[in-house]
Design goal:
4pyrrole_Mease_sub2, methyltransferase, binds S-adenosylmethionine, EC 2.1.1.152, 36% helix, Methyltransferase, Cobalt-precorrin-4 Transmethylase, Domain 2, 255 residues, Cobalt-precorrin-4 Transmethylase, domain 1, 2 domains, transferase
Length: 255
Amino acid sequence: MIHVIGIGAGDPEQLTVRAARVIGRTDVFFLVDKGSAKSQLNEVREGILAEHASGAHRVVVVRDPDRDRTAATPGYAPAVGDWRSRRADAFERVIGEELADGQSGAFLVWGDPALYDSTLAVLEEVHARGAVAFDWAVEPGISSVSTLAARHRTGLNQVGRPVQITTGRRIADGGLPAGVDDVVVMLDAHQGFTALTGLGLHIYWGAYLGTEDEILVEGLLDEDLALRISEVRAQARARKGWIMDTYLLRRPAAR
Ligand SMILES: C[S@@+](CC[C@H](N)C(=O)[O-])C[C@H]1O[C@@H](n2cnc3c(N)ncnc32)[C@H](O)[C@@H]1O
């Protein structure tokens, strides 16, 4: 059995009791290595293993294939597809080679595996290829989106209204989606909110949520606030070498 375990968005205490139990019963952990800038993320994973895994567990590092991040938007999907199938090659190899009969393996996934994470899609691809036989199960985790809402002490939706979760790339290409009052933006390397000032939107922004470096900014999204968030973001990124941020944009009409 392969467990795909959501570990929360940075605070090890976000791990569910159930996930901690599954970790305690797992034989082999597959740690996907995304390079040094993100090694702090693996430090969180290692801390969780030190606390909850059995003394007999093993860790197998899976080198993440390089990804073409230079692809312009039209080429983005094929670039991801190619990277995903190379990642499937790596998963197939470790599942086939590193688990003895009857042993269980696990992937520790940041936040919740259901949200902007490729582990489940990659495992499906490996399973469909049929070269290695395995079953898999998912343990939900607390996402960065849940953490953002909690830290700002707000809900994600307004009464009876929809909420959309999308990417910075989509916001940059198409602006704010129509018909939605609340939009959560993830994976935004280019601060798409800076192009959305003057619309009377309210922004709830958070970086390094759930960690000791957590930064929160909230307010009416005018040029001053957009500039302030950009500056705070740039300084934090320079200090730590990487950043993960998420924000909620709320339309005023429904407020
Ligand atoms: C590949 S997605 C993974 C999302 C993850 N599965 C989840 O449930 O939060 C990475 C994006 O999640 C967001 N993110 C993840 N952890 C975060 C954190 N601790 N603080 C702020 N944003 C975070 C950022 O938008 C980042 O670009």
